[in-house]
Amino acid sequence: MRWVFHDELGVSRSAAWMLTQLAHYDGLSQQQLAGITCVDRSMVTLLVKDMEVRYGWIRRERHAEDNRLVRVYLTKLGREHAAGLAKRIHVLDRHLTRGLTAPQLEQLRVMLQTLKANALKNLGGGGDSLDQEPED
Predict the structure, then answer these.
(1) Residue in 94, 27, 36 with CA at minimum distance from that of residue 62
(2) In this structure, are strands 28-29 and 70-74 parallel, antiparallel, or unpaired?
(3) Number of domains in the chain
(4) What is the CATH number for 84?
(5) Strands of 70-74's sheet, edge to edge?
């Protein structure tokens, strides 16, 4: 699936997710972006820098009172790219889910949310260990 995003949309899944989130919630902190997108903070820093320096899609601003806080904003170019990206993601989604009924899509959404919750619990320091089988 990773190659589909990069080859078809020209950006990684993480970058696409960050751009679309900023289109809705411009001015998020890098920490908030990491939380919303479930991307490691260090990776967010690298992606944000790349999108700022290489593409000019975003700009970063340090908070006036708390120098540790960096807010991320879309530039005009970034907003245009995010809008086009959102449309292309919608089309990609339609291709990927072709042939699935509404109840099947809902069931898939629930299953994916369960997988995400389990991954966050197991990989995010939530208590379970990958050294032992989970309890049912």
Answers:
(1) 27
(2) antiparallel
(3) 1
(4) 1.10.10.10
(5) 28-29, 70-74, 58-62
Query: Which residues of the chain have a pLDDT value below 50?
Result: none
| Structural domain boundaries, residue 31 | 2-99
Kindly compute the dihedral angle of the four CA atoms of residues 101, 106, 109, 111, in this order, to the nearest 10 degrees.
-100
Give residue-wise pLDDT tens across range 92-109: 888 889 999 999 999 999
Report yes or no on 16 lying in a domain: yes
**pTM for the structure as a whole:** 0.69
Nearest 10 degrees: CA dihedral of 129, 134, 121, 15? 100
- Answer yes or no: are the C-beta atoms of 72 and 23 closer than 8 Å: no
